[in-house]
Amino acid sequence: SFAAMTCQSRLTPLLLLLLLACLAANSQAQIPTQCRSDAYPPPADSEIDWVDVDLDEAPLTRWRNVVAHRGPQLRALIAQFRIFVRNMTGSELLINLVDKDLTPLAHTLPQPFRDEIVGIANMTGIPLGEVTLYNIFYEIFTVCTSIVAEDQKGVLYHARNLDFGLFLGWDLANSTWLITEYLRPAIVNIRFKKSGQTVFMSTNFAGYVGILTALKPGRFSLTMNERFNADGGYIGVIEWILGKRDAVWMGFLTRSVMETADSYAQAKQMLTGTKMLAPAYFILGGNSTMQGCIITRSRDAAIDVWERSAAANHTWYLLQTNYDHWKPPFVLDDRRTPGNKCMMAKGQASMGFKEIFNVLSSIPVLNKLTTYTALMRVDTGEYHSYRQTCKDPCAPW
Length: 397
Fold this sequence. Notes:
By secondary structure, this protein is of the alpha+beta class. The chain has 2 domains: 35-49 and 142-387, Penicillin V Acylase, Chain A, CATH 3.60.60; 58-136, no CATH class. The chain is 36% helix and 23% strand. The strands form 3 sheets. The chain has an 8-stranded mixed sheet, with helices on one face. It has a 5-stranded antiparallel sheet with strand order 13-2-3-14-15. Helix 1 (2-9) packs parallel to helix 3 (64-89), helix 4 (93-106) packs across helix 6 and helix 11 packs antiparallel against helix 12 (353-360). The longest helix is centred in the N-terminal third of the chain and has 26 residues, at 64-89. Residues 1-17 have low confidence and may be disordered. It comes from Macrostomum lignano. InterPro entries: Acid_ceramidase-like (IPR016699), Acid_ceramidase_N (IPR029130), CBAH/NAAA_C (IPR029132). Residues 1-29 form the signal peptide. One of its GO terms (cellular component) is membrane.
């Protein structure tokens, strides 16, 4: 594996980055953008299963359905992460520190998330510190593509690729990211319910209690993309550990929005003004024509809200990757340009689940970090998600 090779040859982090940058540059040069038209419908066995989480149940036990369905996959995923860390560091020291020092951190988290994480640790037998670390990952390691689009009849669609696992172990033999491969079996769709009624739906990695992709039927849809920034999520996490706790964990904020906001406007207000541990892009879809925006967040507040109604050229859709929309994307990770090319080639007249899925299945929008694609339609409450795997030739990210 790449992780083992990294340990054995003592590659520095800088050399590791340069090696992967060369790999990406070579892939970008050899793999032309192709706008697929044959990816939809996806294979039946790629569709992600559904389970329910009852918000009326005690937090310590409310995730038991998820754990029952995906507990073994979660244990395998965290075990693989342990192997990766051991190979990178040459010892179990870091994991031992996680088990020891992150356990108290779990008890500083706000309710109900604290008890939910404790309950997941209890039900799986995974050390509490490791379940806490697993829930921290998504503050700082998620790269994605999200699209909000409107067809000519005024129907709004919201879709996303969730890419995860960058730099978390490269398997040379199979040309895959190790953690990404272990994440796919742990994906689950969740219906969050109160009083027997579905409040919202989401796609989660089992054991993660926050929200990255979700739909509130008839109200709004929401996805989160990581925003790379010097004042990044790791700083917020460190501040929290040191006792500065006036900010909200990103995944907890999005979960609160899905549970409590009753409209597109209310969700936008919560997402723009709440101080967070990590910067992010929030892609918000509504339930009426011209709704949809991309909220570019620093840790303190929104620095830009890009409304569809204010978009200069492509007013029928917005596409967001992991770079500020008013700046050029990173040259080795340009999913924006091919994504826009494919959206314009499909056109508004043909827009729907089929074509938006085809766009998200086109390389390099689809890449080796992609774990799933989700498709949402707010007015009907339709929600579909599918595991995605990018076969060679494919961009590494």
